[in-house]
Amino acid sequence: MGKASSTKKVARAARTGGGRTARGTGGSLVWPALIGVVVVLGVILIGISRSEISGASTPPRIGKDHWHAAIGFYGCDHFLPNVAQFENSEGLHTHGDGLIHLHPFSSAVAGKNATLGKYFELAGIKYSSTEAVVGNATLRDGAKCGSKKGVLQTLLDGKVVADPKSLLLKQGQVIVVALAPKGATIPPPPSAATLQTPSDLQSSSSSTVPLSTPTSAPSPPSSSPPSSSAPTSAPPSSPTSSKG
């Protein structure tokens, strides 16, 4: 009787997996899950840290660098109007002068984050490999330029860029987004001539602007000769004598 009872207990334990083993297996899964969460958080924090370091040490740097690049949008045989002026808190904008103005205020546009794609995003320009939408104008790859098929391409200093949105912005660049027949000569934008004297730096460097306004203007010198002052005392009168 005792042997049969022991056999039944062993069989029951085998069916349930031993109870303790099952509980132990369930508990052991908690540690791998926790380790996985820690690893994921660590990767995220490292990425954020690298981004901040990039913004602090890799040009353009937050609060230190002030760069300008010329940009134009060319349709077949002429340049479109400049992108309209816009401002933002990031420090990547334009004054409507055909220049990209870059002086980072945040890591979003500093270091390796200072890209042409970021400028397109902030300017509201829709850009893809097939079209560029700038304001009310659309440059579409394959559209006709006269009797010839136009090709949409982006040039940096006269050379075609393979991935324009990833292009890192730098001081003095000349960028043209163009729709033109293959092999056509594409000129630099008119704003390239102002790269050395951007509008936002002229006023700060001009020596003709007074630092302060005087509280009162000096009186202009008089051009009339000084008037002779009247004598303070009358000349002695001629003595009167009576003839006797």
Which labels suit this protein?
5 helices; 244 residues; 11 strands; 8-stranded mixed beta sheet; alpha+beta; 27% helix
Task: Tell me the total number of β-strands.
Answer: 11
Instruction: Estimate the helix proportion, in percent.
Output: 25-40%
Q: Which radius of gyration do the C-alpha atoms yield?
A: 40 Å
Shape: elongated
- Distance from first to last alpha carbon: 189 Å
Task: Please indicate the percent range of residues in DSSP E strands (runs of 2 or more).
Answer: 15-25%
Figure out the total of helices. 5
Rounded mean pLDDT is: 79
> How many separate domains make up the residues?
2
Low-confidence stretches: 204-244
Looking at the chains present, what oligomeric state does this protein adopt?
single chain
Structural class: alpha+beta
Taken in chain order, the helices and strands follow as HHHEEEEHEEEEEEEH
Report the sheet with the most strands, covering strand number, pairing sense and barrel closure.
8 strands, mixed
Explain how this protein is built.
The chain is of the alpha+beta class and 244 residues long. The chain contains 5 helices and 11 strands; from the N terminus they run H-H-H-E-E-E-E-H-E-E-E-E-E-E-E-H. The protein folds into 2 domains: 13-57; 67-196, no CATH class. Strand 6 and strand 7 (137-140) form a beta hairpin. The protein is elongated, with a radius of gyration of 40 Å. 21% of the residues are buried.
Helix-strand blueprint:
Layout: H1 2-16, H2 20-28, H3 30-57, E1 67-75, E2 78-79, E3 92-93, E4 99-102, H4 116-123, E5 126-127, E6 131-134, E7 137-140, E8 144-145, E9 148-156, E10 159-160, E11 174-181, H5 199-205
Parallel strand pairs: 1-11
Antiparallel strand pairs: 1-2, 1-4, 3-4, 5-6, 6-7, 8-9, 9-10, 9-11
